[in-house]
Amino acid sequence: MARTTTMLLLVAAALLAASCSAWEAVAYVDSLKLAGNGKEVWVFDIDETTLSNLPYYAKHGFGCRALGLVTAHPLGLQSRSHTMFLRATPFNATSFNAYVREGSAPALPETKRLYNKLRSVGIKPVFLTGRTEDQRAITVTNLRRQGISGWMNLLLKQPGFKGSAVTYKSGERQKLQDAGYVIVGNIGDQWSDILGAPEGARTFKLPDPMYYIG
Ligand SMILES: [Mg+2]
Q1: 128: CA distance to ligand 1 center in Å?
Q2: Rounded to the nearest whole angstrom, what is the distance from the C-alpha of residue 155 to the centroid of ligand 1?
Q3: How many CB atoms lie within 10 A of CB 165?
Q4: What are the φ/ψ torsions at residue 204 (nearest 5 degrees)?
Q5: pTM, full prediction
Q6: pLDDT reported for residue 33
Q7: Please, which residues have CB within 8 angstroms of residue 151's CB and are 6 or more apart in sequence?
Q8: How far does the centroid of ligand 1 lie from the alpha carbon of residue 188, in Å?
Q9: Domains in the chain with CATH codes
Q10: How do residues 199-210 score in pLDDT, each as one tens digit?
């Protein structure tokens, strides 16, 4: 119970911080002098940026399991302290991918607001995700179920790619740039979403209390 409460508080704080980042991104969009030539794009990560997998992690202990609760009486005082000892559990790709195949992940509301704002001013959204090509159909379904549509591109990891997340994502951004697109913004929950040239004219890092890729 203590573990769940702590994790929910952490998640709530992260969602609030994510909202702040998205608000900042909207303010940045308002400040732009756009060329309006159809070449301006914004790169979005998907997991924990556009769609939230919180329902999956909540069902799986937020990536850890409780080893035990220790109650102590520090310095002989009457008040007690409680310490929960946790152990991280390894990521289970099989169960996570089964969850992805449900296509039920909710949208992060403030990211969706940013997405709609960009479309309204003519900046084309591009999804760039570590999801793999075989997950394209369910990812499209999930996004549409959440009222998200009209993107220019959905770039997924191709079979056989062995490089790092930074190599993959920066490489795809480079292809966009080489094709004449201007990346006016780039938003993601992992550092690997926003590091590696070309990063985009401005990057926005969302917090992720549940996992770290790099
Ligand atoms: Mg992500």
Answers
A1: 10
A2: 13
A3: 19
A4: -130, 125
A5: 0.86
A6: 95
A7: 124, 125, 126, 127, 143
A8: 6
A9: 2-205 (3.40.50.1000)
A10: 999 999 999 988
